[in-house]
Predict the structure.
Amino acid sequence: MVREVRALETALGTGHKAPQPSEWDTRRAARQQVVAARNLAAGTVLTRADLMTARCGHGLPASELWALVGRTLEHPHAAGDVVIT
């Protein structure tokens, strides 16, 4: 009976929710980054309409989108490019 109780405790786990090691690659690929919604010239003051998010795997996280609004681009960006001011 003790063996069965220990097996049940193991099966129930700790209740702690966290990604499993096998899920990290998927999690990284699923994250979205800020990209240009259209072609943008250097010197453009960014508006919300200039930005969108996409699963490109690198760049600023989508949570930073609103921090970019109102900033001026130093370099031109093509539509779909990761936005770096």
